[in-house]
Amino acid sequence: MARTPLRLLLLAIIAAAVLLLSITVGAAHLPLASVFDALTGGGDETTRTIVLDLRLPRAIVALLVGGALGLAGAVFQALLRNPLAEPWVLGVSGGAAVGAVAAVVLGWGLHAAWSIPLAALLGALLAIGLVLRIATHAARGLDTRVLILAGLVVAAFFNAIIQLLLTFASGETFRSAVFWMMGSLAAASWTSVFVLSAYLLPGIIVLLLMARPLNLLAVGEETALYLGTRVERVKLAAYLVASLLVAATVAISGIIGFVGLIVPHAIRLMWGSDHRLLLPASVLLGGGFLLAADTAARTVAAPAELPLGVITALVGVPLFVVLLTRRAV
Amino acid sequence: MNAGPVFEVRDLRFRYEGAERSALDGLSLQVDAGNLYAVIGPNGSGKSTLLKLLLGTLHPSGGRVHYSGRPVDEWSRRALAQRIGVVPQGEETVFPITVREMVGMGRYPHLGLLGRPGPEDREAIEEALQRCDVIEFAERSISKLSGGERQRVLIARALAQRPTTLVLDEPTVSLDIRHEMEIFELLAELSDRDGVTVVLVTHHLNLAARYAERLLLLDRGVPAAEGPPGEVLSKETIERVYQWSVVVSGHPGPGRDEGAPQITPLAR
After folding, report:
1. ipTM entry
2. Which homologous superfamily is A6-325 in?
3. Contact yes or no for B92 and A218 at CB 8 A
4. Residues in chain A closer than 8 A to B111 (CB atoms)
5. CA-CA distance, A90 to A197, in Å (whole number)?
6. Chain A residues 152-211 with a CB less than 8 Å from chain B
7. Are B179 and B152 in contact, with CB atoms under 8 Å apart?
8. From the list B78, B92, B96, which residue is nearest A273 (CB)?
9. Residues A72 and A81: beta-carbon distance below 8 Å
10. Are the beta carbons of B96 and A272 separated by less than 8 Å?
11. CA nearest B115 in A: which residue?
């Protein structure tokens, strides 16, 4: 049991290392020493601006978004007893995106930073409700493949709605909206850090506390009931909170797929699927992974910036195909 | 412990939503503490439905189910889980999980959300692993086990709960004779030595006749017979319920169950 804290510490160290690396690299290369100077309030003004106003908030947003997506993926997988479940595949991200876009189009401008995540949550809940309804209707019980199909269909539908909405957008709005849809942290600021933290941290804590009931639900709902879980209540709470996490990340950083697939799967391969380890480990590894991906996104083709969702999809899709064709996971 | 019956069922009726006839229609029974009670009957006679009603997973359309003197619906799931170990049928694991982790879940009802496992929990897990003879592959993944081994792991998880009542749905399906006998011996030992009340559903009439103190024979949702094996398993009753000719003989022995009724279905 003492292995759990050690493993989490290892992942935390890796995330911290990626954090330092991501602050040093970019259009201006900053040596570690000057990064430390800037962090402690010293150094020259340009370096301080780059570190404190640009790279640090963006890196923290990447850690939060990645952690939330990794965790949400692990939770959806446990709830649906399905290793392929993931916010993007389930259509949850697409639903959240429709909610967010609708909020912008309908002009919920007031307190936009705070209200758009809520609109995204409504969209996310609508999506997961639709997917579960379609899947249970088509298959009597939740068949893995039917569920994935339902998710992809709903995702495609929501995608079409967004594109329809965007047809009416002006050139500049269109460009930034398309970039947002492909996933981007380019707009990250300290405000996004605060908004994300307010939505994500309570949600992450609630889900981490549900590790034992999720262990049971991952085995089976009947078993969970016989081992003392109030199944319906736990499921509802977990769906709500996991959808909220996805919605908040989509509102801030757009649709980033496959983090919730790759991350929990990697942890399970290494360390098994006890959720007391899997959930916090998915947060740490998800954060570190997305930060690494974002660092690559803004440096590989600099000064151009690659869409973040494209990078995670390039890594994630092949893995998804392997998982889908090889039944046993 | 209270001296009354563990399960007390009166005039129980249940109909699945949209079904034409009741799955159970007017069933009464009583299971006393420390008994080994077997429910038998043809496919679709309502055996698994009865277990779900006993466990409060389904709610009666009529009549009542009491556990330890209180309506089963009034118990919290956690309080029930601290007393009743269940071995369900057809549980499939999707994710990699070791035998020890699976058996450890039997302690969850005693730990709550955040409680840390103590020495008593570890002892209960070790004992369950040993009694079900699964300790040598405790660190292996469930998905790598044979059907029989997996079944023993599920029983071990139920034992790790340290239950006073054990409910099993066809626990020996697809097991070879040695593993099947080992499980029945274990259930008999739990009931005789540890005073655990055991309720099981099974298709093995002959093993039920040898190990159970009382049998309930269900026929399309109504009890065809209830009582000690010698009374329930008569040639007339079996032939009427199963619609097949049989001979009933006495178990030739040796053994403590010598003379128990044994059913042999005849060729046409």
Report:
1. 0.90
2. ABC transporter involved in vitamin B12 uptake, BtuC (1.10.3470.10)
3. no
4. 212
5. 24
6. 209-210
7. yes
8. B96
9. no
10. yes
11. A212
pLDDT by 10s per residue, chain B, length 268: 456 899 999 999 999 988 888 999 999 999 999 999 999 999 989 999 999 999 999 999 999 999 999 999 999 999 999 999 999 987 777 888 999 999 999 999 999 777 788 999 999 999 999 999 899 999 999 988 888 889 999 999 999 999 999 999 999 887 889 889 999 999 999 999 999 999 999 999 999 999 999 999 999 999 999 999 999 999 999 999 999 999 999 999 888 888 899 999 999 8
**Contact present, A238 and A275 (Cβ < 8 Å):** no
The minimal CB distance from B95 to the residues A218, A226, A228 is found for A218
Task: Note whether B106 contacts A: Cβ–Cβ < 8 A.
Answer: yes
Query: With contacts defined as CB-CB under 8 Å, which chain B residues touch A77?
Result: 95
B169: β partners: B201
Task: Report the DSSP beta bridge partners of residue B264.
Answer: B247
- pTM as predicted: 0.89
Q: How far is CA A309 from the centre of its chain?
A: 11
Chain B residues with CB under 8 Å of A226 CB are 55, 81, 84-86, 88
User: How far, in Å, CA of A66 to CA of A72, rounded?
Assistant: 10
Residue A149: its H or E element: helix A144-167
Closest by CA to B245, choosing from B267, B223, B219, is B267
Q: Is A220 part of the contact surface with chain B (CB cutoff 8 Å)?
A: yes
- The Cα–Cα gap between A237 and A220 comes to 17
